[in-house]
Structure formats: C-alpha cells, structure tokens
Amino acid sequence: MSVKIDLNLCTGCAGQEEAFCIKYCPGDLLAIDKETGKPYIRSERDCWDCMVCVKACPFEAIETRLPYQLASYKASLKPKVYKEKIVWKLNDINGREEIYELQTGG
Amino acid sequence: MENIVIKVLKTDLLIIGGGTAGCLAAVEAKERAPEIDVLILEKAHIERSGCLAAGMNAINAYINPGETPESFVRYVRADAMGLLRKDLVLTMAERLNEVVQRVESWGLPIEKDEKGNYVPRGRWNIKINGESLKPIIAKRAIKAGARVLNRVLVTNLITKDGKVRGAMGFGVRDGKFYVVRAKAVIVATGGAAGIYKPNNDGSSHHKIWYSPFNTGAGYAMGIRAGAEMTSFEMRFIALRTKDVIAPTGTLALGFGATQVNARGERFMASRYGHLGAEGAPTPLRVYGPTQEIKEGRGPVFMDTTHLKEEDIVELKKSYLNMYPELVLFWAANDFDPAKEPIEIQGTEPYLVGGHAQAGYWITTKRETTLPGLYAAGDVAGGVPYKFVSGAWAEGVIAAENAVKYISSLDNEHIHSMALDVRGEIKRVYTPLFREDGIRSAEMEERLQKTMDEYAGGVSRYYEMNENELILALRKIKHLKTQTKYLLASDLHELMNCHEVIDRIDIAEVLIHHLLYRKETRWPAYQSRVDYPNLNDREWLKFVNSRLKDNRIEILERPYKQLVSGDRYIP
User: Fold this and answer.
1) What is the ipTM of this complex?
2) Which CATH fold would you assign to the domain B423-542?
3) Mutate which of B20, B207, B208, B211 to disrupt the A interface (most A C-beta within 10 Å)?
4) Is A1-68 a CATH 3.60.10.10 domain?
5) I need a surface site. Which of B16, B152, B259, B495 has the fewest CB within 10 A?
6) pLDDT higher than 90, residue B274
7) What would the pLDDT profile of B71-102 be if each residue is shown by its tens digit?
8) CB-hemisphere CA count at 13 Å for B245?
C-alpha cells in the first residue's frame, strides 16, 4: 500500500518550511528528494493508508493506491477538501463514478 | 556522538503524546491553571497524529438517555468477562457526556435528530462526522496556550528519587537530544501495535487495525522506569473486514449486519446464544468466528445482503468518515455489499488499554505508581471500553490532578537538580554510528514471528500453552541481547530502531503476564489451551508486574466489587 505522487501536479510546496504531506505524515514516511525538490515516499510498505497526505496536499497531487495483493488496478478515490466539507470522487474498475459529500466542520 | 546538540527545556506540565487524550489534558490544564506552562512532545505532527489521524465516525462510549454511569459499568464489566477496575470505569463514565459536549463546542459535528438530540447508534454510541476530529482538537490545545514540539520521539522518563521529573528523547527532524525538566508528566502515547505478525505481509504489512505508528513507547518507558503495569495478558484483537482490516462495528451497530459462516449459519446465536449471541462480550465475538475458521466452517462474513441501494450509500459515507480505503477496496474489486456478504477476520493481537486493559496501574486520579507521572488513554490500564471519549475523559482527569500536584510542589529543587544524560544519549544514538548490524525491519520481523508462533498470534488462532510461552520468553530475551547491533542510516531509521526496542521490552512483560494467568479469562484475547476455563475462584484478580533489580516481578492485586449485580450480566 502506498501513495502515488503526481510530480507534474506537485510543486514541492515552494515557500513552505516543509511540504504539507511531509509535515503531516503520521509515520514520517515522506521526505524531500534533494535533486527534484519534491517529496518521495521512503518506505512504501510502511504506509497506513490514512490519507492524511492526500487530504493535506493543496494541489491534489497525491493518490492512495492500495497494494496489489489486496486490490485490483485501477480504481481511484480522490478527496477534494473544502473548509467545512470533503467531496470524495470514487471510480470503480468498471469506470463508474460516484460522488460523496461529507460535512467536516460545525 | 560528541557533536549531538543537547537542548534543555523546562516546563511545569509535560504531556508525552499529542493524540486526543494528550490534547484534552492540555486544554484542561491550561483552562484550570492558565499560569502553568504546558508542553506537548509529539512524535509526528499534532494536527494529524495518533490513532485518529484518519478520523472517526462514531463516539462509542456515551451515556445515552435512559442509561447511567452505573449501567455503563455493568455493561463494561460483563464485556470484560467480569474483571475490571470499576473505580476507574465509573470515574471515566461520569465524565463522558461532558467531554463529548465540550469537543462538540470546539467544532466537532455530531449528528442530531429534528429535536436536536444526538442520534444513537447502539446503547453507548452516537454518530459523528469526525473526519476532522484530530485537527479540531489539536487546534484547541494550541489555542488554549499549550506549547507543542512536533517530531520529537521520547525515549525515556527522567526519574529522581523515585519521582518522575521529565523526559528525554530526540528530534526526528533536527536530530537534537531533548531533555525536558518538568514538575509533572502525563503519558498519553497510545498503545502498542507491531508486537505480533500482522494478518497481511510484504507490501501490506501495515494494513492493520491500530495505528502502526503507535509502538508502545509509553508502556516501554514506564516499564524501564519501574512503574507497575497491569493486565498485559488481556490483549486486544479486533474483528475486522478481511484484507483491508476496516472496522465492523459500523456494520453491526449502524446497519444491522450479523455474523454468518460459509453455510449461512448464524453461529453466534447457535453456538454462543447462552453467552449473548451477537451481543456476547467482545472477546467472544472474535473467538466465535475464529473457531468457525479453525474448525473448517469458514470463511465467515458479516451479512449485508439485506441492505438496499440507499443504505449502501450511507454505509460508504460512514466509512469515508473514518476508513476510506474500504470504499476504494470495494471499488477496486468490483464488490457490492448489497449483493455479497463482507468477509471478516480477527486481527493480530495488540496491547491497547482503551479497548482491553493493558497499561499502567493507576489510581482514580490517573496517577501511576511513580509519583509525578499520570497516564491517560490507551496507556492507562484497568479501564477497557474507553475508546475515544473515554480517553478524553482520562486526559481531563489526569490534567486536573497533575495541576493539583504541581501546585503542591516546591519549585526550586526540581528544575535545578543535577542530571546525567550521557548514558541515554549513548543508548539513543548508537545505531547511527554502527557500520554493520541489524536493520530495525529485520528485528521487527523476528519479534513478530516469535510472538505469532509461540505467544498466540493469528497463525495459532490466538492459542498458547505454557511450553510455548516459556520458549517465547527465551527467544525474546535472546532478541533483547541483539538490540545492541541495531543499525540506522538516518533519523527516521533511528526512530524505527527505538520503536522495535520498545516493543521487545513490552513483549517480554506481556509473556510474563500470559504465563502467570493460569485460566482462560478472555477467549482469543487470552486463550490458554492448558487452562481452558474461566476460574473465578482462583483468578478473579489482577496480574501486575514491575521491573525491579533488572527482573520482571509479578504482583497480584485484588478485584473489588463496587457496583452491585451479577458480574456476567450486562
């Protein structure tokens, strides 16, 4: 299990002390690649799939990928985070799309 | 090693672990005594740390209308097979509703009906929209005035004359060695995952129930400091959906799903009806399906095929609030829970005082046996069924009493006492300076394999006997002698090294506890095949331990009946 970072969308959070994904990962699993200035995951197998980095990324550049031993290619689940809600876009392996909107603030 | 920068900090109240128990403690301390300095040391980043990083969709310890703290104690007592600290559960239960309302006032959305009442989801449960639970609580702790140091891993407590006077650790980012002098300390680091081999391996080895980043530091530092621990033998095993290990409580309580075996038999009713069927104590709800699989009637499922399309939408929303990857797992495997039942399994065992009761032996004030040290949340023992809101209540109680303790102290002595931290610096940083040796992941595998095979892991259907446990102890003691060969190439790996060292220390204590209790009190959680029955006449008591003169000694503590009624009736 792990996350996949789209380096075309990722900016490395220039100007921030630390990229948001690196800052918040509860497992300290994301680090900066000194050559590209962009984050990478140092140990894919150690990811808990908590999706904290996915939700924290301002550029929607990170996607959760379940390990292939458990889940087939290629479904996706992507959140769009707003101030008081999250909108989840789910695509199953047949390409069917579902949208879920959830309240997160009072 | 002489280049290590030492940073000495002083505070009044040090909180180790910025999960929700620690944050509630910080808020309570600052609101109660604004003049005291509160410092939280957090190994990750406080905004998304601890086991609630991903969120939560229900509060599972709440006194709904018609119930009382006493009725809660009766329920939890039966769920814990008649043995728990009623004084602790009662003092927690009395605070549950108050803390939930407090967190709601900070911005946590709780579902309400047309009349404005919370929506119950079972006897002790209410529904919340808790995706942002952790950031809401963390921000409040900061707003209340607590200082936070993120990315610092605490490795040991500072003790002086038997009293706890602070803690030490290192910066996972800056590499500095932190020495924090404090008048009182609250330990709230959470429980321990990663002691046993998980259900999944390889690329999925962290696809586990409890946060894999909760590695039992709080237990380990307490053990090494000589604190008395209780009930490690009451391990916790969660009943989860197979593969992605998502919670099943949502299915049972929120959507009326029942357990069935491969033949479609409702085995909890047919085999465990006399013990409460689907409402049997939590250990039996893991033991039941495990036995079905062991005896060849698996796979086992939660039957969701009665659900309609609109129910499935609600079910998915419920998981998105807490465990989004289950929804992705279904989408990836073309799975529809309205058409097929959901396969379930038990996880590997964990030590978690918030679900079972492994942890520090504490008073109702949440004081540990070491003066100056308080415990709250999953590290506090004897109080099962606390879950999220109970951990908050304990944070509040611990802070209330730590503040009183601080005000009773003579300030001068504490912050000026002499300290020698050279030994700890050497212990902490040595893996960085070794050229050859063992990587933390290798040692973790060895620990987990040993515990799985000789101390009742998943592959053994959680069962164990004395001979196996004696061998487990020998192997773990040997492994302990190998920790001096641990190797780290950076600070992240150094953190991993200490996480495995801590878990080995915990595993040793756990085996001592498992060996000592010669009955089976909590099937699956603690299944002694050589003593298969519950034995109230000899074992209605707590098994405690502490490290003394470098040896783990076992102590027995009596059970006290404080709330009337049959201990086995909820």
Assistant:
1) 0.94
2) Methane Monooxygenase Hydroxylase; Chain G, domain 1 (1.20.58)
3) B207
4) no
5) B495
6) yes
7) 999 999 999 999 999 999 999 999 999 999 99
8) 23
